[in-house]
Amino acid sequence: MKLHNVTFILLVIGGLNWLLVGLLNWDISQVLGGQASLVSKAVYVLVGLSAVYEVVTHKANCKECTSAPSV
Predict the structure, then answer these.
(1) End-to-end CA distance of the chain, in Å?
(2) Scanning 41, 46, 48, 70, which has the fewest C-beta atoms within 10 Å of its C-beta?
């Protein structure tokens, strides 16, 4: 799988986590052993790095951004 696909999946996971926090005050880290657990921290770091990667490489990877505007 390409790095872009992996980062996209991680960003979706991060977005869904924030949705759960906002709507239900429930954090997915509770399933992973709490916010202090190593697994939860690793997931948070991977989601954050995915966001940085997407910000840096988005223009080159996005078909919407590179296509000519339609009238």
Answers:
(1) 35
(2) 70
29: tokens are 């880290």
Sole residue written with tokens 């980062």: 7
Give the Cα separation of 29 and 8 in Å (integer).
19
Q: What is the domain count for the chain?
A: 1
Q: Minimal CA–CA distance to 5: which of 48, 63, 61?
A: 61
Q: Whole-model pTM?
A: 0.72
67 found inside a domain: no
pLDDT digits (tens, 9 = 90+) for 23-43: 888 887 888 888 888 988 898
Q: Domain limits at 44?
A: 3-59
The residue-averaged pLDDT of 36-54 equals 89
